[in-house]
Sequence to fold (455 residues):
Amino acid sequence: MLRNNETVETKLQRIAAKASSDPKCRFTSLFHLVNVELLRSCFLKLRKDAAAGIDQVTKTEYGTNLEENLTELVGRLHRMAYIPQPVRRVFIPKPGSKKQRPLGIPALEDKLVQAGLTRILTAIYESDFIDDSYGFRPNRGCHDALRALSLTVENGPVNHIVDADIKGFFDNVDHEWMKRFLEHRIADNRVVRYIVRFLKAGVMNEGVIEESDTGTPQGGIISPILANIYLHYSLDLWFCKVFQKTCSGYSKLIRYADDFVVCFQQETDAKRFHKELEERLAKFGLEVSPEKTKVIEFGPLAATKAERRGNKPDSFDFLGFTHYCSRTRDGRRFRMKRTTSRKKFSAAIRKFKDWLKENRTLPTPDLMVKVSVRLQGHYAYYGVTDNSSGITRYAYEARNLLFKWLNRRGNRGRMNWKKFNRLLERFPLPKPQIRVSMWRQRVKPEPYKQIYLFA
Fold:
């Protein structure tokens, strides 16, 4: 039982413990957790410089009378009088392309309510999710997914990879299926009703409100956890509880949000999965991208066969890296190595170039500090085992771009390489170095328990 004098955090921990110990449990009383304490903690975690939604309310403005605003918001929520506002759609340049990427900006109160509901959903579903789901989960990230893939391919009997891509996943989530998946664990109708309201809140595009018949809220804080719930039932459980049991050899699925790869020992299993995956996802309104989904030979045997044929084995992209077959330095053992994918490298360079163009008028000390921060961020993600060449090339290109834009300030030719090198002595840029090891294994949680399946 939950005690009234407990903090919201303690209550969420109790719910998480109950969800983990009792996979059959449907939670009937959850919405009382959406109180001033919960929403206040969500407010404090919001970015100060976050863009405002269609109501143009900023964090600073809302925080002026925070307690009054939160009390009034909680009152509307519990009277079921709260109506989410349409998301404000803006378009931002897509790095490495002339295209623009749509970005959704929810109203501030919508962010608060979504953040509160996300904490409740996380407490319930975190123990349900399979261990090889890595996207948008506590204490997990892209590097964990990459590490799991590396250990699987190098230590398991992997001969084939299905590199899969779901076409427009976040735009095609079926609302009715989403509601059914939520009701599988949540019997508090108020929680489900508010999530449905967010799903159907719509988008304001150039002053015109567009209805949302499918998909998750653009830019919504709640979208990642809803995506994980949707793919947990539509993909993960089907693979682990149904398809995997019919395989004649080893198989393993590794997923980060809607981006996933599946490792197979037998080619027949891989090809059958590719076919049945299309049928499975179609049931839930999803579609596999034909041009981005493929079955390839990959692993020690694939490398040996390719060598005999006199060509290179196939490679595949996953989470911004191109993975390819290689060997240890002494040539005795197979290794799967990785480098920054061409697409992501080009996009990163384009993004850096555009940023320099916008910030070239900053005072030199400020500019150099910000450049260092951006380089550190790139190395923090792409500085993984075997990718020295990728981050070194990025450092080289970024350095040349910096020189180019500094040279354009003032009279042309004002900055030469001699002066630029002296500048780098005064404001040294961080050196590219490997930051993340693919050898360190994280501690795995206890095996998940799940008895339900939407077959």
